[in-house]
Amino acid sequence: MLAFLLSSLLLTANADGNKVTVLADVHTDHAADSMRLLQEHVVLQEHLATQKTRGGLAKSRLQSGSAALLPEASVLIQKEEQEPTTVVTNQSWFSRLGDSFWSVIAGLIMIPFSLVLMWMNERRNAQQESILQLGVTEVQTIASKLADEKLHGTLVHLNDADAKGLDEVKDRRFPAICFETGCLRLKTQVQVYQWKETKKEEKKKDNLGGGETTITKFEYNKVWSDTQINSASFNQPGHSNTISVSGLQCGTEELTNTTVKYGESYYLPKELVQQLGGPMKWQDANRLVKVLEFNGSRFERSEDWFYYPPAAAQAPTVGSVRVSSRYLPDGPASVVALQMEDKQHPNAATFLPYRLVYRGLCGGLTEDALREALLAQGQKGSDELYEEEAWTSGPFACLCCCCNMVAMCFAKLAPPQIFAAFNGHSSSEECFEKLEMIGRLQKWGLRLLSWVLLYAATYALFQPLLVVLDIFPFLGPYLSTGAGWVVGIVVFVVTALLATTIISLAFLIYHPLVGLAYLVGVGLAVGAVIGISHALSS
């Protein structure tokens, strides 16, 4: 009875807007429990009401004299904020069937794209291997003290000096992070403490009607992220992301020194400087900064980060910011590239990519003509390289859009060339071994990617069949699952043989002996499959 009276009094006081205090002289255990639970209930209700009205970060409307927020109530609020929500959606059989035909269209588009990627990857690999073979025979290891004009247009290797940054490198957002000299590259990372939505889906096929039920659980956790998370697209309201420092954007900004000298007579272009680095080479720049500010907001350092507000180092809240900066100092480097005259610095040289050029029948070009051709080819940008590699151009470019798209990607991202810088003093043989290893990784990575695209695209062609099987009452889900396994195995074998055939045909053009061996292997594999099938059928 006492618990009921206390509950009524507390509700009345809260409804009238009066101050509510915890009665310390209640000795009855049941009354105290009722008071505690009721207070937690009131606080939680006000928290939910604030979320609904504001649609943003929840702020309690209790005044300073209102009921103190008990630890249990805080835990309840935190649990409510992070409690996953479940959304159940149903898709009819006809809707699934329509989506499956869209999968067929996507598959028909992806199949030629994957085959073109597979072919042009082999073409690019053959060109890269040819460049490396030529480079091994033509490279000259030279000293960095004097730039010899006679070597302009020659593939050179240098490993006797340090790369030194001469210009100032300063972060535009934080002027305190500044290096007048001695810095090759600078990375500044800004992270914000934000809500992150995680979605987990579970699909269940209906036993009747061929429909499908999707159970989606949305979970919300607070994380440090250098990417702005759009909370407006969250499924559950009340998880609004803000930033406590006005005008500051999260993300990682990287700067490269514009003037990097190598030895006494050479300067490294930006593309080579960006190749220097590695996990063990970067150093902490925070220790060199005493005060970090942005638009009047002062950050304080704690371990490897600068935090704002300072309390965020121990107890971050949504919108807290932390900043970390690393730099790559001057250090030893090795270069393999084409030497050319540096027009910005007198009596100096810089570097260009070493690429394939037409050398005439039986090496008909003279040494001077070959150097001029190599210099002209090395100065071409990605657009000019794409024009050379494009299968069709002008008004006919759309006739082979897949081929031209892949050619553009290779021209911009990975053209066949020798243009490398490595940390440390590496010999010419070590540099070429590293280049060969990088080439193998790219070759097999793109082979795997093209095969996965081919497999997924081919499997998508059978989606309507699998959806049709779901229409059978009760047995439909089991039939489609079994058929899915069979289709997956068949598609795996067919696409593996097709990929090997495409690679073999490409090798017949670029590596005839290896391509012939691959084709013989494909023939033996096909013969074995046919023989096993015939034996099983008989």
From TrEMBL:
The chain crosses the membrane at residues 101-120, 444-462, 482-509, 516-536. InterPro entries: TMEM43_fam. The keyword Transmembrane helix applies. It is a multi-pass membrane protein. Keywords: Endoplasmic reticulum, Membrane, Nucleus, Signal, Transmembrane, Transmembrane helix. One of its GO terms (cellular component) is nuclear inner membrane. Its main location: membrane. Residues 1-17 form the signal peptide. It comes from the Eukaryota. It is found in: Endomembrane system; Endoplasmic reticulum membrane; Nucleus envelope. The keyword rRNA processing does not apply. Belongs to the TMEM43 family. PANTHER family: PTHR13416, TRANSMEMBRANE PROTEIN 43. This is Tmem43 protein. It comes from Symbiodinium pilosum. The lineage of its organism: Eukaryota, Sar, Alveolata, Dinophyceae, Suessiales. The gene is Tmem43.
